[in-house]
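Trying the structure run again after the queue cleared.
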Amino acid sequence: MNPPDNAIVLCVDEKTQIQALERAQHTIFPQQNLPSHQSSDYYRHGTTTLFTALDYLTGNVIGECKDRHTSEDYLKFIKKLDKQCEDGKVLHIIADNYKTHNSKLLQEYIAKHPNKFVLHFTPTHSSWLNLVERFFREITTERIRRESWNSVDELISAIKEYIKNWNKSGRKFRWSKSSDEIIQKIQKHKGAHSQV
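Done. Tokens:
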């Protein structure tokens, strides 16, 4: 919430299994007194995984679609972030506890680049703390689920277009709660689960 000087804070995650669904009928958008709705019949063309980094300060997004989401794929994405971010900046990566986010491959890469990366992991079952999840909600409701896709390539093109337009828009997310309120909520949640 208060990034250090000479740092770029990136909220990083993957949105997996994004389906390219060709709907039997196009989405019917809301009309007076009627919500939007879609045909439940579809043909599934395949899936893609969207690797995403949301810059906390600017709101800009770096995204890349891949066929899989392995440790190797995640490392390639981290290397891409390293190349695209300003030289001399320390990259603070906020990620969840998924095993690829702290793999041996990644640790070896980070060890070879001292003072370049700082990893921050959200608590288990608290992925909502990572603001990139908020971006995933936006792209899912505004673009991915609103259309019918004839191929995975068509879906990927639409994702790229959405990210490009997002970055032009200047939109960004900010916490409406203070860090103390967020920490209290996490502690309350942990206490409730320990009693189960």
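The mean pLDDT is 87. Worth checking whether this holds up in the mutant runs.
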